[in-house]
């Protein structure tokens, strides 16, 4: 399972690296290519912040944070390689690949190449790259996995608990039925013994009356 995560991370890293190199080699800074009119454009810009240009000019901060995050991701993948949930492992691979892609840019160049641009009328969504896509999709999958695997809340009976309760009820009912049957059998035995004693006493009295 861990190799699966690393494979996804490597794929994101390679695609991110190739697309960034293509932008650098084929487009001038701020040059645009219309893909779907002005709605979707390829725009060559440089970002000194995090994903979507958040917290610009904080290179050292992001380098330290990225090292910590990448180290934590690798540790988690290594120690949960056999028991890790598939969806979580995919998510971690996406985040790891995206984090490494942007980390290399910051470390070598001090900035990140962004190029995907979407315009909604007069509003322009923050320009991003393949690494950002990997990070965002990974975070979404982590949240989804956490939602799907959360523990039942108080007052909510799980299927296993319901089955256990049903089994206990069956055992109790069986025990009660057995006890009732045993009680009836014991009462019947006592009545039979009493009837036999009465018949014996009657015969003894008749014998005494005979001349």
Read across the widest sheet, the strand sequence of neighbours is: 1-2-3-4
- Kindly report the average pLDDT value: 78
Specify Rg, calculated over alpha carbons: 38 Å
What is the N-to-C order of secondary-structure elements (H for helix, E for strand)? HEEHHEEHH
The share of residues in helices is: 55-70%
Overall, the morphology is globular
Number of domains: 2
- State the low-pLDDT regions, or none: 156-161, 163-175, 177-186, 204-211
Oligomer: single chain
Structural commentary:
With 211 residues, the chain is α+β, with helices and mostly antiparallel strands. It has two domains: 2-148, no CATH class; 161-211. The protein is 66% helix and 11% strand. The chain is built from five helices and four strands. It has helices at residues 2-26, 59-79, 86-109, 130-148, 159-209; strands spanning 32-36, 40-47, 112-120, 123-124. A four-stranded antiparallel beta sheet has the order 1-2-3-4. It is globular.
List the SSEs and their pairings.
Blueprint: H1 2-26, E1 32-36, E2 40-47, H2 59-79, H3 86-109, E3 112-120, E4 123-124, H4 130-148, H5 159-209
Antiparallel strand pairs: 1-2, 2-3, 3-4
